[in-house]
TrEMBL record:
<keyword id="KW-0482">Metalloprotease</keyword>
<feature type="domain" description="Peptidase M14">
    <location>
        <begin position="48"/>
        <end position="228"/>
    </location>
</feature>
<dbReference type="GO" id="GO:0004181">
    <property type="term" value="F:metallocarboxypeptidase activity"/>
</dbReference>
<dbReference type="InterPro" id="IPR000834">
    <property type="entry name" value="Peptidase_M14"/>
</dbReference>
<dbReference type="GO" id="GO:0008270">
    <property type="term" value="F:zinc ion binding"/>
</dbReference>
<keyword id="KW-0862">Zinc</keyword>
<keyword id="KW-0121">Carboxypeptidase</keyword>
<dbReference type="GO" id="GO:0005615">
    <property type="term" value="C:extracellular space"/>
</dbReference>
<keyword id="KW-0378">Hydrolase</keyword>
<dbReference type="Pfam" id="PF00246">
    <property type="entry name" value="Peptidase_M14"/>
</dbReference>
<protein>
    <submittedName>
        <fullName>Zinc carboxypeptidase</fullName>
    </submittedName>
</protein>
<dbReference type="GO" id="GO:0006508">
    <property type="term" value="P:proteolysis"/>
</dbReference>
<comment type="similarity">
    <text>Belongs to the peptidase M14 family.</text>
</comment>
<keyword id="KW-0645">Protease</keyword>
Amino acid sequence: MNRPVSVVELDELNALLALGAGCVDARSLGEVEVGQQRLQLWSLALGAADDELPAIGFFGGVHGLERIGSMVVLAWLRHLLTRLPWDDSLRDLLTRVRLVFMPVVNPGGILRRTRANPQGVDLMRNAPVDADDKVPYLIGGQRVSARLPWFRGLPGVPMQVEAAALCQLVTSELSCRRFAVSVDCHSGFGMQDRIWFPYAHTRRPIEHLAELHALHALFEQSHPHHPYVFEPQGMQYLAHGDLWDFLHLQIAGSGRVFLPLTLEMGSWRWVRKNPRQLFSRQGIFNPQIAHRQQRVLRRHLPWLDFLTRATASYQRWLPQGEARQRHSSLAQQRWFQVASA
């Protein structure tokens, strides 16, 4: 029998499943086959299970090449689990918020070191959403061939098992609540770390633009020296099949607030510091030197901690009435260059 291939992210996920036994709700949302191996699609949850309370989800590894995304989510989960035995403030926080994790959305891609899943499908181009304007050639999603990057899958074919599992988890744990946030960790775009929010399929503003602006303002007040550019993804490029667009569109007009965010780590900065990384597919998307990887894993913990606390306390800052109108106007000016009335 062939011995299973060991992968750092999958080994760490298994270690955290063991560490969290008894305090973490762990579920397999399905499985994928890669050669002789069958890999589970794990979700983990801790904290309040009451559907009336808010929730936040953390996702990584949608693209198998972007391993650092999974590492960031796993580092945050380990940080929480190792604090649980002694940190009363964390225990109190978890009575007021639900935390949901899917650290390795695409274990087959992680194992094979590919952006796409083992079927050659780019999971972040796999949802049934088409852009309402021209998209960049190939990058915006294509249906020509799984041999080319950014393949959406064939028309009329159900979503891939990994994408469907993510959507199932979001629907059952996040978007069904009055208030929820998600953060999906990626890498590979530009010199700066960015926080993107929907939409990717259109340049029109999202329904919850005012709430996103209020969250951004809260973060800037409490972390004035943060490293992030906060913007709608559509400011950079449009794409077909974005999973977060699809999930947000499902709750449009429902009165619920779901804020899907993407942490897009600027991997070009790592390449600039170590140009030899250009000669490695892994190096283009991930820091290759140990101390730089450790720095990245530390760098984003304050952002994830802020989001968790802001979610738990959303009723204290979520804009209503005139405040919501003000935030909407400021957001239009900031991100869509629309003058206020």
